[in-house]
Amino acid sequence: MRLIAGIELGGTKIVCGLGTAGGELVDRARIDTRRPAETLDDVDAALRQFGDAHGAFSTIGIGTFGPVHLDPESPDYGHIGMTPKVPWRGFDLLGHFTDRWKMPVALDTDVTAAAFGEARWGAAVGAASVVYITVGTGIGAGVLIDGTPVHGFMHPEVGHVRLPRAPGDDYPGACPYHGDCAEGMAAGPSIMARWGAPLSDLPDDHPAYVQTAHYLAHLVTIVLLFYAPQKVVMGGGVMTNGRLFGPVRRGVRELLQGYLAVPRVEEHIDTLIVAPGLGNDAGILGCVAMAADLRS
Amino acid sequence: MRLIAGIELGGTKIVCGLGTAGGELVDRARIDTRRPAETLDDVDAALRQFGDAHGAFSTIGIGTFGPVHLDPESPDYGHIGMTPKVPWRGFDLLGHFTDRWKMPVALDTDVTAAAFGEARWGAAVGAASVVYITVGTGIGAGVLIDGTPVHGFMHPEVGHVRLPRAPGDDYPGACPYHGDCAEGMAAGPSIMARWGAPLSDLPDDHPAYVQTAHYLAHLVTIVLLFYAPQKVVMGGGVMTNGRLFGPVRRGVRELLQGYLAVPRVEEHIDTLIVAPGLGNDAGILGCVAMAADLRS
User: Fold this and answer.
1) Binary contact (A228, B154; C-beta < 8 A)
2) Is A238 helix (H, G, I), strand (E, B) or coil?
């Protein structure tokens, strides 16, 4: 049985996994994100342990926090970009793993990895184009068009669009760059700052749901108008309890006003905008999926 | 010399052209858009005349107004969708030309054709990913990612996003579906309705420029965050006099606040957001470009 290593690199924690080409996760480890050298020593140790316990793996898939340089033509290819996590700025993530492990490495953003995971084994199986949106500490999206991730001069950064404000909402926003972009108005930190608690601790009828859904409905509407994906999968901590899906779907239809006159929007929006089929494992399984296609 | 026919199908006029695989336009004709049968009789006559005058062409490229069904798997493939041009609704445009001409036909939206034209012979030569935005009677965009048009369950409809309003702007908007979406606030009809004249008739210091640029800067910012294209080409009647480029570029940088920290945004935005290199011929030459790659 061919084995594949996955590494989901987040700002606070790293999930390492060992998976099969069929999407089974046979082992996993969790590592706290610190400075690159010590953190990746721990990651390498976890991968070695996987190998000792289950047999050698032949390729590695990495989904990382961004920004990350993904243009193979660029001298910065595989390096972390201008992240607020200062010690990681400019770090050659791809180089580290290709040097250390001498095997093919697939690299993309954490959200693109999650989109791959959902497309291969999750809620988006059979969909030609998939957008995975995470709403957690930040807001980001991975976009697959006909199975290929959208990268231009960089990967998408959908969380930083400015949206019309909810009626009566005068919160300045929590994004250090933009204040009231989507991320600044609807990600976890802005919910904490406004209401003093995460959404999951607030009762069903709390106005935080309506307000957060306002911004997410606007964001998803742009996703539909720009990419027209067959599936929009929404994950991340803010989405976890599932209560936002109803108001987001209703908000999207209200914003579109019948303009995208197709059954998947008009009649089946509950199967167009969905929760991750793989739950919290979308990212790590997506790393495995990305590397499953590499030749070892 | 191989000849290619192009047909740019607009809501008020149709441009037919005969071109070469090198991008030279050797003949052209203009036809008013009426009901499908009579209009396309004239188009067919124009194409026959091209053949008589210059020799036979071997493929046809069509760029049409939307919405149009572009999913080859769909039973509606090649048919016009729910357009306000009622006689064209459901019309089998692709079928008409393949039946009548018995040769390979490439079909996409008019704006995607323009993106192909600019990418092949215009302002976006050498750019892997290109977005062509037209700002005219409506607002639309053609999107090429690594040379391939973005289609999901339909083609992009970027003109219908809602944007934050310009300070003090209380115009309800001219879009029959959405009122104040981008198209409703910044396309030609809304400028006429607000100011009683097209932008080109208004003096340089008229507030219409600032207001229109506000919405277009928001729209282009979303284009950059979602697609990160190497070139954004802006055409259409509203852009023609060139005066909006300065305020749109400044607006985009202001909205991004340094978030896309790459030289092409931070230092070279004047070569990132540009006018069409092919002027008004972007669409018809793009039709030729699309069909130049078909095997005859």
Assistant:
1) yes
2) helix
Q: Which residue of B has its CA nearest to A255?
A: B178
- Cα distance between residue B2 and residue B56, in whole Å: 9
> Chain A within 8 Å of B172 (Cβ-Cβ)?
no
- The CA–CA distances, whole Å, from B125 to B63, B271, B276, B279 equal 20, 12, 11, 14
- Burial-class residue B156 by CB neighbours within 10 Å (0-12, 13-18, 19+): buried
The single residue listed with the structure tokens 């303009």 is A259
What ipTM did this prediction achieve?
0.96
Please give the DSSP secondary-structure letter assigned to residue A204: T
B165 and chain A in contact, CB less than 8 A = yes
CA B140 to CA B155: how far, in whole Å?
10
Query: Minimal CA–CA distance to A270: which of A238, A247, A291?
Result: A247
Contacts of A153 in chain B (CB under 8 A): 129, 228-230, 262, 264
- Nearest CA to A244 out of A228, A220, A262, A265 is that of A220
Where helices occur in chain A by DSSP H, the ranges are: 36-54, 93-101, 110-121, 182-186, 188-195, 207-227, 245-256, 263-266, 269-272, 282-292
What does pTM read for this prediction?
0.96
B259-282 average pLDDT score: 95
Instruction: Using alpha carbons, list the distances in angstroms from residue A188 to A270, B43, B58.
Output: 24, 57, 57
Which string of b and e fits B165-198 if b means at least 16 CB within 10 Å?
bbeeeeeebbbeebebbbbbbbbbebbeebbeeb
Query: pLDDT under 70 in chain A at which residues?
Result: none
In 3D space, the residue among B25, B4, B16 whose CA is nearest the CA of residue B296 turns out to be: B4
Torsion region of A196: left, alpha or beta (phi above 0 gives left; psi -120 to 50 gives alpha): left
pLDDT in tens, A107-156: 999 999 999 999 999 999 999 999 999 999 999 999 999 999 999 999 99
CA distance A53 to A30: 16
Coil vs helix vs strand at B39: helix
